[in-house]
Amino acid sequence: xxxxxxxxxxxxxxxxxxxxxxxxxxxxxxxxxxxxxxxxxxxxxxxxxxxxxxxxxxxxxxxxxxxxxxxxxxxxxxxxxxxxxxxxxxxxxxxxxxxxxxxxxxxxxxxxxxxxxxxxxxxxxxxxxxxxxxxxxxxxxxxxxxxxx
Length: 149
Prior knowledge:
10% helix, mainly beta, Lipocalin, disordered N terminus
């Protein structure tokens, strides 16, 4: 019995580290606005798509206006590997070309919570290290995903 319990616990731990795309209930698109800062402050729309049919099991991240300067930000690393472990969604290897000198590259993590209606929030308050230049990129905001149908 002890071997079965240990094997079951190991299997449960392994499955919790699988990409979110492997779990259909997690699939969907989180959208909202985020504050982005790297030398200048911007308020941009952002989306994280965890089920883009062109990239199954991958995350696709986009950022853009309402502020005109947000169009100058470019996510050049799509699609991304990602994980959801213990309520933390981590998008791996995010590369952002910025409007100011130097780009940013690194993992972006946010906390996923479920609302009473089944919708989800992805709260991000993260620093992405500089790839070139000296300043990191800061991203802060909450994205929303409607309830799974």
